[in-house]
Write a structure and sequence with these properties.
74 residues, mainly alpha, elongated
Length: 74
């Protein structure tokens, strides 16, 4: 997100309104696409059966991340 913020608002961002900075626009588009991909991967990992949401909601001795409710909360 930091790279996208810089492309949109950092030094030289005013050039985005013109046609003289195609590289900057292409770079911003690539960064945004990467953020979209990562968001989809996080969503999928959260929602899949046995995924992160399930691990978080079901702490216990067989859970590899959360052995009890206190660990899940913190």
């Amino acid at each position: 997100l930091g790279a996208l913020e810089y492309v949109l608002y950092g030094d030289g961002a005013e050039t985005l309104a013109g046609k003289d900075e195609p590289y900057r626009c292409a770079y911003g588009e690539a960064v945004a696409g990467n953020v979209e991909t990562m968001a989809g991967e996080v969503r999928d990992a959260w929602q899949k059966p046995g995924g992160f949401a399930s691990l978080w909601a079901n702490p216990g001795p067989k859970n590899p991340l959360y052995r009890d409710g206190n660990e899940a909360v913190t």
